[in-house]
Amino acid sequence: MYFEVGKTYHGFKLIEQKEVKELNSTARLFVHEKSGARLFSLQNDDDNKVFSISFRTPPENSTGVPHIMEHSVLCGSRKFPVKEPFVELAKGSLNTYLNAMTFSDKTMYPVASKNDKDFLNLMDVYLDAVFYPNIYKYPEILMQEGWHYELENRDDELTYKGVVYNEMKGAFSSPEGVLMRKVQESLFPDTTYRYESGGDPDVIPELTYEEFIDFHKKYYHPSNSYIYLYGNGNIDELLKFIDGEYLKNFDKTLVDSRIEVQKPFSQMREMAVEYPIAPSEREEDRTFLSLNFAVGRSTDPEIYLAFDILEHLLLETPAAPLKKALNEAEIGKDVFGSFDSSILQPVFTVVVKNSSEEKKDKFKEVVFDTLKKLVKEGIDKKLIEASINAKEFILREAEFQGYPKGLLYNIKCMDSWLHDEDPTLHLTYESTLNKIKKALITNYFEELIEKYILNNNHSSLLIVKPRKGLAEEKAEELRKKLADYKGSLSEEEIKNIIENTRKLRERQEAEDSPEDLEKIPLLSLKDINPKADVLPFEEREEGGIKVLFHPIFTNNIAYIDLYFDTRTVQQDMIPYITLLAGVLGKVSTERYELQDLSNEINIHTGGIRFSAEAYSKNESDEIYYPKFIVKSKALVDKLPKLLDLVGEIVGHTRFDDKRRIKEIVQEMRSRIEMTIFDHGHVVVQNRVASYFSPVGKYVEVLSGLSFYKFLSDLEKNFDARFEEIRDNLIKVSKAIFNKKHLIVSVTTDGEDYKAFKKSFKNLYDHLGNEELELNEYDLELEKLNEGLMTSAKVQYVAKAYSFLKLGYKYTGSLLVLKTILSLDYLWNKVRVQGGAYGGFARVDRSGNISFGSYRDPNLKETLSTYDNVYKYLLNFDASEREMTKYIIGTFSGIDYPLTPAMKGQRSTINYIRQLTQEDIQREREEVLNTKKEDIKGFAKLVKDAMEQGYICVLGNEDKIKLNKDLFNNLVTVFE
């Protein structure tokens, strides 16, 4: 359809229209004349369509009202009065993305789907949720999602409960979380950015129901909204729907959601905050030091892109000059940085981790001296070229780890649009990039450093230091506060709290009526393709090496992945495989010094990455294939250089740089610590699998908590053990990088295979050719049942076992069981009633069935919930419509759209695991044909698995000690 600027379409006046050639899209900006809503569309041929509605929501305190509102509006609305429409959509739509996000100054509600009908359904539910939520009818929604006083009996202890309350307790448990949240407070003490939009657990209980409702009334109006459409949808029909169903019912109003600009400081501010560590942890060298600079405006496209490149140049690469200087000064054990352009005044941050407060002046001195030297002597032009190329490759490739492209463009456009600027400002990057490229012949970056860092007093030094007993002190203070409050209440008031607790529980346990459930739109099974997608795949051979070729359109990029068999490595050397992956590409080689190697990789390629994995044979956890993986990519005409660099790194790395390898060990250890805090649910899932599964045990030794302990030991005795470490890295490297048992995966256009074939010799000649023995590992399995103790204020609770060991077979219907348990039973019991941020089930082809929770205030109650899953299944009943919903929701995960690189990787892993197209098709048919009787029939499998009693919990030291009878071992994670 042809659109003309100035004309009105279904109440939307077209203000501006232009081509965005960088995204092959037509951009249109509309304003809805009656309601004042803004709408921006990016029309193109991408069938993974995205819709979102966002609101400018600047917080006025740290009660977390924007975040609690984001959760709450998705708990029932006018058209869709069920308790959790969001979950009903997750159970039964083909969405490729379904979520909501709270930022410091905005709240976004994005959805995505490839199916037109599904896309319209998702849009309808989300629009109804934001404009007509049930929060006005049911105060229990705030109690559940935000916070409430919990008291079941007169003599019980009064406590706080709530999903966001516990989510944020988890977020404030990690030192990185505390640091990240305090940076804005340190730089913007007079604006909305000083507040915690997610909610500070100490402040969340100050939020009243009246304030909550007022927030919605004030900000959730079309006049304060930003609607976004992306993809190949019919724009005319979508505008008609949005106007007719929603916007025509609203009149334009003036919403004051302005975001003030912070006046610059006359001098750098200093701020110190504390974070809790467990009584058994040490305080020395656990401090974070952070220098932060407010840099221009997010509405300046040049600053936006140039600082992204500058942050890469100074801190991201192994040879980045600022990172190098801080490492050499030994101020801390890890150095990282960030450039946050999601707020009006973007922030450039440099962080040193595992340091001490005494080193703060030295930290400042090294940062400023290094930057002054770079300005005076000039930055290496090769380094500038490398960093520009690295960012340009990312922009042009537009691969976002499988997230819909339209979602990432949505987030990017909000960085300018929210502040009343052109939404295409950061999407049309070509002219800005060309300006920045002049840095190769000018002092562009040197001048940026001088203006925005060296001569910028709008900056802060943030010190985040550990304190033993802080968590216990706060917990005691809270206990006393709540006990005093309870003591001050009359009998009538106590009865009210008990009654409110009962009413909330009653609402949570009540079933939605079939009539209400049927109001949630549902596709039919006819919308599911009965045939599984076939991933392009050809088996070839080059120089005696197996090559798996995936002919896919890749827009002139070649993805070359190498899968080396690591069974050539002896059992006692397994942890060195992951250490090797961390070292390669980050130390010098025979031909290149580190700085030059880093530059060559970034100038000529899209990146070379190293990792170690283990793939279990289809439907087995006893047989597995451990691999060392080299993932690399480049433009097709750069293939000779790419393969030459890969060959140089795997064949000729020098392991003699003691200082550099020590830095890498410290950095790897630090990054695993972050994972333990931020992804505790993954840590316990992997750990519990290692008690009973051979592949689980291997992965644990390779990269789990055992590997973390291995790194800690290396670091403690590094100087004395360096020669041994060096020799072991050489030994493991020689054992792995061999032509025998190597599989090469090539993903590129059919015609471009010739270019790979021609340049393959560049890699081939660097590899060993010995016949090496493949070891059979004998890793001891032991039922450790650990309580992993940290200072966290919440728990991550896992219970698992192998159903194959119990004589059960894998079937696709188990995936439907996973959907039902994750989005029904565990969602209701662990999250809604238990107050955890999440509860989920996992089932895989290697035979594991596991249950897990995330940021969970409970421990034994959650384990008891897992033990009762089988009872829920025995009584499971579902109508045909409900079963259809669960099956469709399961396909949302199975049919997730894959990028070309992901298709090549998926196909190769299937090949390694001996998973055939027939297996995949059979699984699909089993999912499609799942009946409620199949789900009921899994009760015995689940009961048998849970009765084996394999558990692992990561969480609060006091809570774990209180439940010590549940565990065989109590372990202090951070010593």
UniProtKB/TrEMBL annotation:
Peptidase M16C associated domain location: 464-714
Classification via SMART domains: M16C_associated
Gene3D superfamilies the record matches: Metalloenzyme, LuxS/M16 peptidase-like
Protein name: Peptidase M16C associated domain-containing protein
Coiled-coil portions: 468-511
Biological process annotations from GO: protein processing
Organism from which the protein derives: Fonticella tunisiensis
InterPro entries hit by this protein: Metalloenz_LuxS/M16, Peptidase_M16_C, Peptidase_M16C_assoc, PreP_C
GO molecular function annotations of the record: metal ion binding; metalloendopeptidase activity
Keywords in alphabetical order: Coiled coil
